[in-house]
Amino acid sequence: MIKLIIWGIVIYLVYKFVFELVVPVSKATSQMKDTIQKMQQQQHSYEQQQQQPTAATTTKPTTSSAKDDYIDFEEVK
User: Which residue among 41, 51, 76, 77 is buried most deeply as judged by most CB within 10 Å?
Assistant: First the structure.
């Protein structure tokens, strides 16, 4: 009878350990892996976009002159 009670307690403790610690940790790990994979895919697509030159980044404005470099300063009181 004592052996049955001890085995019951051991089985209960193992059950609680598995379903309150092991299962949540494994779920969190799989979610983190999915999140990391999505972030890496986004980074890869961003890097591909940066490598492709666009017309806006390759053309320089030709209207710039030395006169435009200075901005008048007016003191506000």
Answer: 41
The model carries a pTM of 0.49
- Between CA 51 and CA 48 the distance in angstroms is 5
Q: Would you list the DSSP string of 28-40?
A: HHHHHHHHHHHHH
Q: Where are the domains of the chain?
A: 24-49
d(CA 20, CA 14): 10
**How far is the C-alpha of 72 from the C-alpha of 35, rounded, in Å?**
50
Using one digit for the tens of pLDDT, what is the confidence trace for 27-58?
999 999 999 999 999 998 888 888 876 555 55
Instruction: Name residue, tokens 């901005």.
Output: 71
The angle formed by the CA atoms of residues 25, 29 and 30, to the nearest 5 degrees, is 120
Backbone Cα Rg of the chain: 32
